[in-house]
Amino acid sequence: QVRLVESGGGLVQAGGSLRLSCAASGRTSSSYAMGWFRQAPGKEREFVASISWNGGSTSYTDSVKGRFTISRDNARNTVDLQMNSLKPEDTAVYYCASCRYSTASYRSGNAYDYWGQGTQVTVSS
Asked: Which residues does residue 49 pair with via DSSP β-bridges, in sequence order?
């Protein structure tokens, strides 16, 4: 099994930046795409970003394009999400997830088999 642990969340003012990190352990593999999702209180989980198995392609939800950057380091089994120009509407619990496929083309949580516990991101106005 694969275990994913997120870190780096916190409180930041609007316009600020945070960098989230996801560390994978257990039966890790570099053959699968990885993704970040988020969930605000009372709302459904939504896709944020994904990255292909080798980092060659990425995908972002429209609301974060140009502000967030997903990256991965397969040698360290980590996936990061650099978040710049943060807005209050970015406030949510952010989850790292491992996809069962290799490309960055999957935005549904149903395509992801392993999930981290989440890290809270709060953006104040």
From this structure: 36, 60
